[in-house]
């Protein structure tokens, strides 16, 4: 839609309409699922920033097959859960971690 030759006013309309749709219209409740969604967005952004560093060919050679590629911030929440005793490979959280 943005490359078909629309004039600047039409593109500005569609851009602002897209941004308005993206703004949440209700109140955000910070329950556990929403906290996980916010954490995902944060971790995805951090991963994208490290991906920019890996786009440099010399850094990519140096960081190839290292934990830099997969373990920048992504495993930090899992690490804290594991330190507190959260077991792996279970379908639901134990009662101790429900809160």
UniProtKB/TrEMBL annotation:
Keywords carried by this UniProt record: Membrane, Transmembrane, Transmembrane helix
Single GO BP term: mitochondrial electron transport, cytochrome c to oxygen
Annotated source species: Maudiozyma exigua (Yeast)
Transmembrane segments: 12-28, 35-54, 66-83
Name of the protein in question: Cytochrome c oxidase subunit 1
One function term, GO molecular function aspect: heme binding
Tree of life domain: Eukaryota
Lineage: Eukaryota, Fungi, Dikarya, Ascomycota, Saccharomycotina
Any single Pfam family the record assigns to this protein: COX1
Gene Ontology terms: cellular component: membrane; mitochondrion
Domain named Cytochrome oxidase subunit I profile: residues: 1-73
